[in-house]
Request: fold
Amino acid sequence: MLIDTFEMLLVDLRAEGVEAGIAVLPVPRAVSHDGFRILRPGLPEQVIPPKRAERVPAVLITAAGIPGEIHAHLSKAETGHERLIVSLIEPEGLHSTGHDSAELANGKRGLRYQLVTTDDAEEAVTSIRGWLHEMRHANPTEPVDRSAELKAMHRERQAWAARLLQGAPDFRTRTLIELCTLFGVELQPDLAAVSPESELTNVSPFDLVWNFPRGKRGKIGKAQVLLARLELGQHDNRRHTRWLTASTNAAGRILIGTKSFAFADENVHRWDEARWLWDLRAGETTPNEHWHVDVKRFIADETDPARQSIRLIKQRAYDEAFAMGGVDLSDEVKRLASGRRLGFEQSEPTGWAQALAAVLERCAPWLIGGRAADYVARHYGTRFAKISALPGQGQTRRASLVLAVPKPARPRLEIRWTGTPHRLPEVLWARPPELDLMLLGVPLKDLLPPR
Reply:
């Protein structure tokens, strides 16, 4: 009988970590809808009426280290012809949402891929081998080296500061308007009327320019930074929030102004939790407080936890690196980080593994397990926020790297298909560039804004 030949051939797959056995599994829609006769191994033949959801004994196949399971049903047509219907049932989270109409052996929802329908047992086993190869094949990610980008940023900062000190050594005594003119920072014409005096007069144009996001060549980049949330005015839309912002204009100059947002959380650069980057009132805080490290130990001691976690990240030992910061990685993150596919979906972009590696390389595990996790727990009832969406997606719910903070467990980096507007501010999870520059030999005093 076809099923016996199939089970005999499956024995050869055990060396590849494949386990097979009889289990009571849901009947595929194609079978139940067409009213096929189901041959249950060791039991009498049973006819499944059309559109009747049913579970019957079938062959359950799983593989070590690969999510999902193979269901192999034996069907018999009215003519007595037997065939195997081999389907992959993939659990939720490995593919785009909205299509999980199948069931796993444990009753949880999943997405069904029909691998093959055949009367040839060897062809059925070949389709399973193809699934194994597809899911186990790894495309090693290229090492992510940001040293040239960081050095360019440092050179541009130093050159800008040198020109400033040469042309206006007394800049510390200048007024806000004079400083903005000196630094090429523009102010929104009616800014004094719409922004509280306490926020506006405490903006440090020097720190703002020094810390403003820069491109790969070190120049001031095209970006929008949300500095502080303001009280809504009398005529403002109550569903929006109003912010003091700094953004680059068409001329490449920084413009300080105010703006209303329906979803301010979508902005990656929000500095309301990192006021030392722009606020004079935070000028007395130390680098230790900014970066959550002991800077002296970081420079001198290779066993410093932050320094060790950076080294492990550069070696792509992500599990150990994030464990040092008290952060777990989901199986999906580990799969992608190792260069393997997230799921079996053929439309999955091939560049996801490299994109994830680029994000992980910028992470500071101790910040993610500390202030980032605290921020998520305080601000979001869903207790998760997006760090970055993976590229090449046009749908609303996109596969994204997120930080989840479940109540009874440790913070965890996961891959979720989500359309959430809650994006974790970059300053809360990304590694400060100054730390990498110190590891490249730049003295600490050259990395801080001149005072």
Remarks:
- The longest strand covers residues 82-91.
- Residues 293-438 form one domain.
